[in-house]
Amino acid sequence: MIAIGGRSALAGGTPSSSRGLGIGIEPPSSSSPKPGFVALSDLGSVNSRLSFKGSIRIKAMEGSRTVTVSETDLNTNGHAGNLGKSQSLLSSIGNSTNIQWHECSVNKVERQKLLKQKGCVIWITGLSASGKSSVACALSQILHRRGKLSYILDGDNVRHGLNRDLSFKAEDRAENIRRVGEVAKLFADAGVLCIASLISPYKRDRDACRALLPDGDFIEVFMDVPLQVCEERDPKGLYKLARAGKIKGFTGIDDPYEAPLNSEIVLTHKGGDCDSPIEMAEEVISYLEEKGFLQA
């Protein structure tokens, strides 16, 4: 079906001396069994230069099967092959048009067998200074010691690169969570235990991330720590700046935090000496073991 470095000609037209990749094309009414050649560089304009209407036939050079392609098919970016089937699989998502999902023979199950674990997203949410990052790091350390592969998507870290173009306005915060959710989904599909640690204050955004994954693969961990405690900790000094009016739209001060109602795991501040990050992380480990995520 493919000729490299051969002469090319349009069906029913004159030969071209352009060299390159070619495919054989012949009109269905042609009395000659010999196909002409169309250079791939010419395919985009084939329809306007063909001297016939209707279907054409693309013939294999080595005796493989002939594929019939309609005139309409040639308008779909000029790709040859079973275009009717391919065209039906094209989709448009957002501003992306004429895209198609490509499957690979190495799938999530195979990757999980290799890693001896099941990919999932552990989404840690809570106020600033509630201990999200500390628990995330403790959890990652425990998993690493057990020979399990994890990766942390930290709210501040992703804003150093992937999301550095986003502010803290409501619409940008929503986009921040959407992007992290999509990246976390890819990690989970790779078989990795993905730990996302973000304030993620709005329920609708967290629910949208949950909807990206199969049932059970999104594990919401709520750091249930009172605002007063978080404000007393204030390791970055952000609450003080927010109270002074130097930071606008700060979660818990002049922007709401919508606490989860049905989290898989709730890590509660019990007053006085609270549990250490390691102890809290062990609660998450227990859940992962119970649900079978630490084995393939």
From TrEMBL:
Catalytic activity: adenosine 5'-phosphosulfate + ATP = 3'-phosphoadenylyl sulfate + ADP + H(+)
Entry GO CC: cytoplasm
Domain APS kinase: 118-267
Coiled coil stretches, renumbered: none
Keyword Transcription regulation: no
GO BP term, pick one: cysteine biosynthetic process
EC number: 2.7.1.25
Biological source species: Trema orientale (Charcoal tree)
Keywords carried by this UniProt record: Amino-acid biosynthesis, ATP-binding, Cysteine biosynthesis, Kinase, Nucleotide-binding, Transferase
Keyword presence, Kinase: yes
Pathways involved: Sulfur metabolism; hydrogen sulfide biosynthesis; sulfite from sulfate: step 2/3
A GO molecular function held by the record: adenylylsulfate kinase activity
Protein family per UniProt: Belongs to the APS kinase family.
Function: Catalyzes the synthesis of activated sulfate.
Pfam families, sorted: APS_kinase
Region of interest called Disordered, as start-end residue ranges on this chain: 1-32
UniProt name for this protein: Adenylyl-sulfate kinase
